[in-house]
Amino acid sequence: MSESELDVCRMPGLPLENGAVKKIVVELLQTKVHAWLLSWSSYKKYINGKCHQISNQLNVTPLAKEKYFALIQWFCSYKSQHLDNQKYLEKYLQITIAGSEFKKVDAYVLAKSDICNR
Fold this sequence. Notes:
By secondary structure, the protein is an all-alpha fold. The protein is 67% helix and 0% strand. The protein has helices spanning 3-10, 19-40, 43-48, 51-54, 65-79, 85-94, 103-116. α6 runs antiparallel to α7 (103-116). The longest helix has 22 residues, at 19-40. It is elongated and about 50 Å long. The protein starts with a helix and ends with a helix. The mean pLDDT is 79.
């Protein structure tokens, strides 16, 4: 969204029925949201995607974006029962970030992976 679109939507007490807000929301749904759904609405698209393609959509610190994207790829491969599930798990686990610890998340992912591979 542009800053002006955001400013209109942020106005306190401005209901969706307001013509300006409604117009912006409908336009965004028809253009940007629809285009995003066409690009990223399946597990396969994330599995085959690259981090830089969605990095601006990842709500994490820049240092963690690669690990976060690898987690998304693993999750998509897990949910779609993709044959290379193990490859995405290994990719996720190999990414380390100095000064950050992911033991609990890693343990959860490993437990889910074990359940998936039974």
